[in-house]
């Protein structure tokens, strides 16, 4: 089968497009015929071997990719409730203690076929295209955890979405506006991304390169501050966003694209009764709820570009430049 794989970590030039053996479904697994995959920043880290993604030389070559949607092509022993031909999306997080990720710890989805644990597969309705479905898991699971499960954002509240042009940010804007119905302040880096964030539904958007984020957030909330922050950027914006929290505010971190370390004002933590927490992906039960919301057209994928499988390396290069808005989809013919 055709696949995108690496034999060593490095720049996008280490990515190869070629033939790899087709997977077989082990007991408890299914093989999915991939129709579309979605790129995430994790794919760039895995290709480069950064941030805990180092793959041992003896485990190479490794097929890249986590998120995908397609059709069940083979059902392994002991699997019930799934049959060949079923349209599905795959939750790339599997196992526990520690959890593992498709494309990092085993062969991934940037290929014609991928084998996955059956419990990681969620059926999708006909109303959802493979391209739309493929990009849901990795960006919507942590944002669902921050906004819905842990952050318990309410309709009358205000959420701040940092780096709103990212895949995670574009999902967060949609959850805040179209699932919760709260006010959304997007925070991003260029005038064009400000415009696109508002077009996607954000009520306000702050350019963090040219504006004072905490000051603007106070102005936009009539001095109260924001009730929830969705942070996938990390150190770069932490202090300003944390200072923007209202009393009783919640701060969810699901990424550190722009740095791991940031100072925390502990006085504000207790005196304003703030809550700081992390989110890492989510369960297949939550993915079912996300798929349901997407199937009803409430939320979707902000598509930046659709590229054929053979052009995945070029998409990695463009994603490295961080000028995109939303998701890169890889279509698998
Ligand atoms: N915890 C989880 O379960 C989980 C799941 C998905 C992703 N993540 C993490 O969340 C982050 C976002 O993932 P993604 O796939 O949405 O990424 P992405 O689409 O590639 O996001 C890139 C965007 O991040 C912002 N950014 C800020 N500082 C940056 C820097 N130094 N270098 C590059 N980009 C920078 C820019 O947006 P602006 O111009 O708008 O600032 C940029 O366009 C990653 O760190 C990822 O590992 C975690």
Task: Give the SSE map.
Elements: E1 2-6, E2 15-19, E3 29-38, H1 41-48, E4 62-63, E5 68-75, E6 87-90, E7 93-94, E8 100-101, E9 113-117, E10 121-123, H2 130-134, H3 136-150, E11 158-162, H4 167-180, E12 183-188, H5 191-200, E13 204-207, H6 213-220, E14 226-231, H7 235-243, E15 245-253, H8 266-271, E16 275-278, H9 284-295, E17 303-308, H10 312-321, E18 327-331
Parallel strand pairs: 11-12, 11-14, 12-13, 14-15, 15-16, 17-18
Antiparallel strand pairs: 1-2, 1-4, 3-5, 3-9, 3-18, 5-6, 6-10, 7-8
Main sheet specs: 7 strands, mixed
- Rounded average pLDDT: 97
Shape: globular
Gap between N and C termini: 11 Å
Order of helices and strands: EEEHEEEEEEEHHEHEHEHEHEHEHEHE
CATH architecture designation of the largest domain? Alpha-Beta Complex
Uncertain spans: none
CATH homologous superfamily placement of the largest domain: Medium-chain alcohol dehydrogenases, catalytic domain
Structure description:
The protein folds into two domains: 2-135 and 301-331, Medium-chain alcohol dehydrogenases, catalytic domain (Quinone Oxidoreductase, Chain A, domain 1), CATH 3.90.180.10; 138-278, Rossmann fold. It has ten helices and 18 strands. The protein has helices at 41-48, 130-134, 136-150, 167-180, 191-200, 213-220, 235-243, 266-271, 284-295, 312-321; strands at residues 2-6, 15-19, 29-38, 62-63, 68-75, 87-90, 93-94, 100-101, 113-117, 121-123, 158-162, 183-188, 204-207, 226-231, 245-253, 275-278, 303-308, 327-331. Strands 3, 5, 6, 9, 10, 17 and 18 form a seven-stranded mixed β-sheet that branches. It has a six-stranded parallel β-sheet with strand order 13-12-11-14-15-16, sandwiched between helices. Strands 2-1-4 form a three-stranded antiparallel β-sheet, with no helix packed on it. It is globular and about 60 Å long. The N and C termini lie close together (11 Å). It binds NADP nicotinamide-adenine-dinucleotide phosphate. NADP nicotinamide-adenine-dinucleotide phosphate is lined by residues 40-42, 138-139, 142, 163-169, 188-189, 193, 232-233, 236, 254-258, 279-281, 319, 322.
């Amino acid at each position: 089968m055709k696949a995108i794989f690496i034999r060593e970590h490095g720049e996008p030039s280490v990515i190869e497009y070629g033939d790899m053996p087709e997977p077989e479904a082990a007991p408890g697994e299914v093989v999915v015929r991939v129709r579309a995959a979605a790129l995430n920043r994790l794919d760039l880290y895995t290709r480069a071997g950064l941030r805990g993604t180092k793959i041992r030389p003896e485990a190479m070559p490794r097929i890249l990719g986590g998120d995908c949607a397609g059709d069940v092509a083979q059902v392994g022993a002991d699997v019930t409730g799934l049959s060949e031909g079923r349209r599905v999306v795959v939750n790339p997080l599997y196992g526990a203690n520690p959890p593992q990720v498709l494309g990092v710890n085993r062969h991934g989805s940037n290929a014609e076929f991928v084998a996955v644990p059956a419990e990681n597969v969620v059926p999708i309705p006909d109303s959802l295209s493979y391209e739309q479905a493929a990009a849901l898991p990795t960006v919507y699971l942590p944002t669902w955890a921050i906004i819905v499960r842990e952050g318990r954002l309410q309709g009358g509240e205000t959420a701040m979405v940092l780096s709103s042009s990212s895949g995670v940010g574009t999902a967060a804007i949609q959850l805040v506006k179209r699932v919760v119905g709260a006010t959304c302040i997007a925070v991003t880096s260029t005038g064009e991304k400000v415009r696109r964030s508002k077009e996607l539904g954000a009520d306000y958007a702050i350019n963090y390169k040219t504006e004072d984020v905490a000051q603007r957030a106070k102005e936009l909330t009539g001095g109260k501050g924001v009730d929830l922050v969705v942070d996938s950027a990390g150190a770069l914006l932490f202090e300003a966003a944390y200072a923007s929290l209202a009393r009783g505010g919640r701060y969810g971190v699901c990424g550190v694209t722009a740095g791991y370390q940031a100072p925390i004002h502990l006085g504000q933590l207790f005196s304003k009764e703030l809550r700081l927490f992390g989110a890492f992906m989510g369960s297949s039960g939550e993915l079912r709820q996300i798929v349901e919301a997407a199937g009803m057209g409430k939320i979707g994928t902000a598509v930046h570009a659709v590229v054929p499988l053979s052009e995945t390396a070029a998409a990695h290069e463009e994603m490295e430049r961080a000028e995109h808005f939303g998701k890169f989809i890889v279509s698998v013919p």
